[in-house]
Every structure is written in C-alpha cells, then in structure tokens.
Amino acid sequence: MTATCVILDIGGVLEITPETGWVQRWEERLALPLGTVHERMRDVWRAGSIGHISEHDVGWEVASRLGLDAPQVESFMADLWAEYLGAPNEELIAYVRGLRGSCTLGILSNSFVGARERETALYQFDELVEEIVYSHEIGMEKPDLRAFEAACDSLKVRPENCLFIDDVAVNVDAAQAAGMQAHLFEDNATTIVRIAAHLEAGSPR
What we know:
By secondary structure, this protein is an alpha/beta fold. The protein has 2 domains: about 5-15 and about 85-200, Rossmann fold (3-Layer(aba) Sandwich), CATH 3.40.50; about 20-85. It is built from 11 helices and 7 strands.
C-alpha cells in the first residue's frame, strides 16, 4: 500500500443524513416543550459518543428520563438510528471503492455506541476502507487533535500524507492543525476532484 492516504468522515459525507424531525415528533407525542429531549438526554448522548455508556444503558436512561415503556423505547431508538444512519452516498462510495489498492483508505467518525454494527450491516464500510476509527471506541471526538493522531496510528500513515474529508469546518481546521491536508465536503464533484488531485500529487513521478 502506498503512503498516500485518504480519510473520510461518515455522517454528511459517506452517508446523507438530513434532519428527520424525529425528536420534535416525540416531544409533541409526549407533550413536552421543544428542546426537552436533548436537555434531559445531553449527558447520555455525550457519554454514548465517547463510549462511556453501553447501548443497553442508553435505553434504560431513555426510559427513565422520558417516561417511556419498553415498546416506546424501541421505537424511540429506531427513530434515532434512522436519522443517524441516513442513506448511503452512493456516488462517493463507488468512487472510494475504486481507489482501493491505489492509496491507503480510512474513516474517522464521531459516532455513537452501536454505530459500527449498524453501519457494517447496512453499508459494509469495513470493506470499503482499511480501518474505521469511531469516537465511541477511542474515547474522544473530533476536533480533538488526538482523534486525528489515532486515525493515523491505526492506518500506520504520516499525517502529511493524508487528505481528510469532513462536512464540518471545525473538524477540517483541526485536521490541518494535526498536520493533515483537509477538504470541507460540500458536494461529490468537488470532493472527487480534490481527492484525485491529492492522489496525483502523491503518485510516483
């Protein structure tokens, strides 16, 4: 495998993840003021994103804090995952699949407990890239510079040889601060052009 490396985010890049309004629907259903769900669950969401709580305990906290019975918890979590997982960005996924063997490929994603199992089952990202680094498995989130270091360590690559793709500007800035090249994802066309330029610059002359 060559030293040239491309690392991608998942949500908003490899997955198309528009807001579905599921939280507001639950607040209406439960006659709660807007914002109540996130206010009550904020520390649980945070714990889930850095692996400090299990999926089982997330469900228990949802039941306890929102007053839901078991079938309601199952429905609530199904709505959460439906928005989280979105739909595959087929064009970009197909392009990245075509890069296998020509560069090192990785994923660095802010995530939630249970994401690896669901994304593997739905999208087979584990077959798309060499390594997937999830925040809930390493205990830290982007834009923490250590998250980018963890991704490079996992792939055994140098940051200066990596192009990082993310749809959040602060994460792009952090990747650059970590020594990577970085691109803010806005659409497939410009992202594919940027990846191609990165690979061309890194290819042997």
